Amino acid sequence: MAGKQVDATRQELFITLEYLIENCYDSEHTSKTIELTEFAKNKYGVLLDRRRANSILEFLASLNNSFAGILPFTIKKVERKPRYYIERTLFTESEIKKIAQAVFKDENLSSDTARRNVCAFLDKVCNNEDKNKILRDLDRKERRIIHSTRNTAEKHEAMDELIENHNRFYFRPKHRIKRDAFSNSEVMIRVNGLLQITPDVKGKGYIDAIGYSQTKGDDVCLYLPDLEGAVIININNISIMRGSIAPSRRGDADFEIRNSRYHDIDEMIDLYYEGGTGIQYRIYFKYVLGRQNDIDNVTVERMKTDYEKYFGRPLEYTQEEREETELDQDGNQVKETWVDLHGMVKCNLSSFKKWYWEHGWFEHLVVVEPKALNNRLLEGYIARFQRRLDKYGEKPEEREERIRRIREIREQRLAELRAARANRENNDGGN
Q1: Which candidate in 87, 95, 156, 187 could, as Cys together with 91 as Cys, close a disulfide (CB 3.0–4.6 Å)?
Q2: Cβ–Cβ < 8 Å for 2, 63
Q3: For residue 47, how many other CB atoms are within 10 A of its CB?
Q4: Taking Cα atoms as reference points, which of 218, 308, 313, 230 lies closest to residue 267?
């Protein structure tokens, strides 16, 4: 039988081969028995004696020599030293680029998966400088998405860089954007129309943009140079893709918007958060303050302050008194004076909904006009809680199972109590 015989397990042989492939790749990086024993212990928890490790290395080398040209690798020995290595097959730069480009173009892989596989390959065959150069070339040629991460902080960091340098890039919305976030209807049709296009590796389904400003929260304002318009969009609602477009030479004063009722983008941003963009509605609401002597002035002042901070202007309101007939503790009818606050706001629906729901005024205010809006807001609020209940709430079958377990425990406990009582009665009767 070819090769020097050695009493080694299959696991030990494979561990030794893996050690050679990962760590011993040229005459300057050869095998060391102490490293091999540590590798086996740390990675697989296998205790390998140093003399035994030497025997396994010799056996693999002699076996490799006996089957030269058949095995997909060659184990070489350093002269005058019992050390071994598996020489790696090096690729040329053009070959590396072709392999990486083929992975990038694989339509069966998502952008993130393709990039991850390419990075793993490049880590094995080139240094970091060459790796970054190849990735930049591929990103420029293939226009791959490079900021599709779900990590909001990383997206903010990337967007801050794009805004600061006035870099041009491509973006695509993930979900429909409401009309009040656009400078005009033409921009809305163009951007929301991207949702009907399936993007491919060439960047189809993306639109050219320049980062204009980081606005409130997770919102960013993007300027669209081809349309001379702007859109305010949540950073989690977009995919960002670098392209071969050069950085913009525009100054802030050059970001003009046309076919719009706003003078500039800054005015559009201010009005957006004041509810002044899109279709405007006059919304009348009522706040039941309570009996004349029991008004919660703290909550009322908090509501006024929150309104002014959110919409950027003082609340327009009036207070009206009304009489209600009630029964006292003795059952007699008495008249009580109640006070209502009537307010009006002119804004778009999405802005009002955000203030009404997310700022917690749903429990205090009732929309009087438009009447249909009150029903829509009520249905929307209920639907929010229903989705939360469906996601995190107890399922009907889980509730039935919980009730069944409670009943079983209760019946078991009652049976134990009855048995204990019967024992006491028997003991008392015996005495």
Answers
A1: 95
A2: yes
A3: 9
A4: 230
